[in-house]
Amino acid sequence: MWRVSGDMAPETPTGVDHTEQGGVGLLSVGTADGPTAESVVPAPREAGPVRSAWQRGLARYGYRAPERPDLAEQLMPPMPDGPGVTPRRVEPSPLLAGWGIVLPAALWSWLCRWSGWLGPLAVALFGGVLRFSNLGEPSALIFDETYYAKDAYALWHGGYEIAWPDDANAKIMAPDQSIPFRTDPSYIVHPPVGKWLIGLGEQLYGMNPFGWRFMMAVLGTLSILMIARIGRRLFRSTLLGCVAGLLLSVDGLHFVMSRAALLDLVVMFWCLAAFGFLLLDRDRTRGLIARRLETEPGGEWLFLGWRPYRLAAAVCIGLTCATKWSGLYMLAAFWLLGALWDASARRLAGARRWLAFGIWDASLALLVMPLVAASVYLASWTGWFLSSSVPGQGGYGRDWAVHRAGLSPEYVQGIKMPFQVDMTWVPDALRSLWHYHATMYDFHTHLTSPHTYQSNPWSWLVLGRPVSYFYESPKSGQPGCRASECAREVLGIGTPLLWWAGVVALLYCLYRWALRRDWRAGAILCGLAAGYLPWFMYQQRTIFLFYAVAFVPFLVLAVTMMIGALIGPANASRDRRVIGATGAGLLILAVMWNFLYFYPLYTGETIPMDDWRARMWFTSWI
Asked: Where is the ArnT-like N-terminal domain (predicted)?
């Protein structure tokens, strides 16, 4: 039920019958609808003998030489548990029996069969309770909620963002609330999807802190479930999947962003969903190749199916870009990742022209994925398109192209073009949107106004400069303050021990990818690089640590992979496993303690000023 091996390649469940077909051992399992990504899995292999005196000597200290799996298992490693994999009858657990716990055979078999869902759901429930607890506090518009909560309300009530009066915040937060909605358009610099989601919570629960934070808490909770399932599939271990979910649930930055109406958690959610769909596509495609090997050993395959999971990934990337433009880097990174996975699968399967077919796969994906993502992006602007083109009566810039000559720009990036092209054939709405986007791009690339909490991306991984979303200094006698002076703060900072362990884990992943050719490490590094490295191109831009929430799931997966290595291979000696599991357990407990220690700063609790100062480990955190 909870298996993990050294390189996190799982043991095949015992008691499952298998047959040899066409020289490739495949488990005879599936569903009435045909084989699935989890149903076509290799048969178990027998352990090979230790071949050299050197290896025999190392074996005395727990070393086991890596076993080379057969071709089918290399293409599609077996899943650890689940319907179609776990037998309907599972032997009782010796561990539980040793503790005197005896479960009915049917219940135990059902738990083992569905542990791949029950474990992640339990972890997500834990993280969800944390995120929804007292979600409406602080009862204020904290940090950039002052923009996005109101923009979200405007989108749902008018289809486009509006200019709010200066006293809007006070009226919204007043006991006798009045919302000063009007139709004057406002210039905004981010696409609308994240604000549409924030507004959904406002539609359900009202224009109040709980309402505009509700959907962020939902997405934060769902992302915990997703990373647990992604980790399970990536490492072929339900235990490690649940560890990934647990670590994400107690990361401070992810926690704070799940309780604030900002856009970056939405970016993280769709990026993680896209990665998960790509992982499903990888397994589905390799399962297809494994099945074709049964009938065409060494054959060539040009078409690998319609790739529904890859299309779903493209939709998610489109939603990412429609929240913030940083999703464009994810599109490039995940296209490259998918292309490399396709080429390696064909090469592993023995295709003679694997490189040519790999280029074909990459070209097809390069055509389809951006097209799907762009379609989703344009659809996200529907409210703006449907608004009036009469000046002052629709979305900002909606009327720009009306009665304007349809010529291409005279200058591009400050360079005068040798000629201009007639663009009158392009609809006015699209030309207006293009001009609007040009001004947005100019804003983003020239945003250099200094900010108290801005930080350089070089400092992000070590949490050099967090962001204070909210701060008050209650005095003695005020609600919650029993000392002479107190502090109340919401600090956007990751759980320090988790992030610092993540730095070590990233080095481990670099080693696994560069020297051991571990595709899982490469996938983790690809996702993290897409969310992190592009910010180094904007050294002069005003940027903040909370942008890093987009790659937090990949940092967590790196730590999880390192924990799997600490636990050790399934065939290691008992002492090795005990020591490794103890070290891994202590690391997880330390991260959870660290989260609890900083919990008052994540939730805006009122604490004595001395306790607040004790948590300011570095002067740059103040």
From this structure: 123-347
